[in-house]
Amino acid sequence: MVYKFEQLSRAEVEIMLGITLQQTRVYREIKEEGRQEGEQEATVKLIVRLLTKRLGQELSEEMQATISHLPLTVLENLSIALLDFTSLADLQAWLDAQ
């Protein structure tokens, strides 16, 4: 509904509708999605850094992209599995098995 009133500020829309947007379910859902995306992004960055350190070389853009598209639960599994990796082949085999 807010998009129907693009010319109005958030405060003006809230006054007009008599609600606080932060109290709406839509606002809470959007906020939660943003929190999850931020957590996923931070986890991917950390895992790429750990893998780079563990394997002694930078990961290819393609491999980083593959990792960045993994669901959070799989990323959590990767964060444990990477402790056993000794080469890029180990990482690739693990990714292929997912």
UniProtKB/TrEMBL annotation:
One matching Pfam family: DUF4351
Domain of life: Bacteria
Domain DUF4351, first and last residues per copy: 36-95
Listed name of the protein: DUF4351 domain-containing protein
Native organism: Nostoc sphaeroides CCNUC1
